[in-house]
Automatic annotation (TrEMBL):
<dbReference type="InterPro" id="IPR015421">
    <property type="entry name" value="PyrdxlP-dep_Trfase_major"/>
</dbReference>
<keyword id="KW-0663">Pyridoxal phosphate</keyword>
<dbReference type="InterPro" id="IPR000192">
    <property type="entry name" value="Aminotrans_V_dom"/>
</dbReference>
<feature type="domain" description="Aminotransferase class V">
    <location>
        <begin position="16"/>
        <end position="74"/>
    </location>
</feature>
<protein>
    <recommendedName>
        <fullName>Aminotransferase class V domain-containing protein</fullName>
    </recommendedName>
</protein>
<dbReference type="Pfam" id="PF00266">
    <property type="entry name" value="Aminotran_5"/>
</dbReference>
<dbReference type="InterPro" id="IPR015424">
    <property type="entry name" value="PyrdxlP-dep_Trfase"/>
</dbReference>
Length: 157
C-alpha cells in the first residue's frame, strides 16, 4: 500500500491533482503513518479491523485543503471552520464514537501485532474452511494477497 500511495502522491504533485486514499481497511489492519504517507485526503472507518462499532470513522484532510473541503450535510457549525462544520451532521448517531477510547485502550494493552496476528490467523482459517466447503480454489497464489485480506482469496469459483 505504501508504495502505491507514494506513486499516487508523486504523480498528483506533478499533475496538481489532489489524492484521496480510501483506506477503509487501513485503521487497525496496518501501521498507519499519515505523516509519512502525507496524503491530501485519507479516510478510514473504524469498524473493520479496528473493531469499533459501525458508524465510527475518520477523515484526514491536509491543512491547505481544509478551507475547500465542505461537508455534504449543512448543519450546526456551518461557517464556523473545518472541524465545526464536520463535527455535528444533524441527526447522525454518534454513539459508536463513545466506544472509541475503550477500543484504543484495548489495542494499547494487548498490542497491535498480537491483535493482527490473531485476526489474520482467524481470517485465513475461515478462508480455507470456505474453500473446502465450496470446493473452490484460490483466486490467485496466496503470496499475491496482503496478509490482511485473506478473505478475498475465496472469490474464485
Ligand atoms: C475500499 C473500501 N472502501 C469503502 C468501503 C465501505 O466501507 P463501509 O463499511 O464504511 O461502508 C469498503 C468496505 O469494505 C472498502 O473495502
Amino acid at each position: 500500500m505504501n508504495s502505491t500511495t507514494t506513486q499516487c502522491n508523486s504523480s498528483s504533485t506533478y499533475r496538481n491533482v489532489p489524492v484521496l486514499i480510501d483506506g477503509a481497511h487501513g485503521l487497525g489492519a496496518l501501521d498507519l503513518d499519515l505523516k509519512a504517507l502525507d496524503p491530501d485526503y485519507y479516510i478510514s472507518n473504524a469498524h473493520k479491523w479496528f473493531c469499533v462499532p459501525k458508524g465510527c470513522a475518520f477523515m484526514y484532510v491536509k491543512k491547505d485543503l481544509q478551507s475547500k473541503t465542505r461537508p455534504l450535510i449543512i448543519s450546526h457549525g456551518f461557517g464556523s471552520g473545518f472541524n465545526s462544520e464536520f463535527i455535528w451532521a444533524g441527526l447522525h448517531d454518534y454513539s459508536p464514537f463513545l466506544a472509541l477510547h475503550t477500543v484504543i485502550d484495548f489495542w494499547d494493552s494487548v498490542g497491535p501485532s498480537k491483535i493482527r496476528q490473531f485476526m489474520y490467523g482467524l481470517c485465513k482459517k475461515a478462508c480455507y474452511l470456505l474453500l473446502k466447503k465450496w470446493g473452490t480454489s484460490l483466486a490467485a497464489p496466496e503470496e499475491m494477497f496482503g496478509k490482511e485480506n485473506k478473505g478475498k482469496l475465496c472469490a474464485n469459483r
